[in-house]
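Try it yourself: sequence plus 5-O-phosphono-beta-D-ribofuranose, in.
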Amino acid sequence: MESFDVGIMIGSNSDYPIIEESIQIFDRFGIPYIITITSAHRTPQRTEKFIKYCEDRSVKIFIAAAGAAAHLPGVVASMTNLPVIGVPIAATALNGIDALYSIVQMPGGIPVATMPIGKAGAKNAAIFALQILSLANSELRLKLNNFRLEMKDSIVNQAEVLKIKNNNVFIDF
Ligand code: RP5
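Structure, out:
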């Protein structure tokens, strides 16, 4: 049977452009994932079925992204003992604050690791998942270290460019 490391759920097709940030990270790191659309409110039985499907295929972490009254991550967390990462999406007039509050305020005992609203949250959800997976995977840990170094180099390069633009008045050290 095929196996995956991460199971991803989005509440609607309209959430897909946000969760693409997670997918790009998993593709870059070569991590096998499986993704579906399922809603806590509109398709609760489908959500439960997908969790079981993933657990049977060695999934180790779930990512659930949803907007509005975003109960998907909490409902997933209620149905599994695997770690659940929640991504709030801006889908209503409340711009994601509704989803953030829905996801972050879990009752004691059923945790959801809540990420920032939107694309940064989707990206961080994937990186956080990689960090968990890297606890048992030294090769992945090395890749994550290199990823950090690339980010560091990019900031140092930005500072260098700004310094040149400002006739070296901009202070770098
Ligand atoms: C949530 O409602 C979904 O996660 C989505 O973010 C939002 C709007 O869904 P659609 O009306 O686009 O299906 O359940």
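One thing you can check immediately is this: Helices lie at 16-29, 44-55, 72-79, 97-104, 119-134, 138-165.
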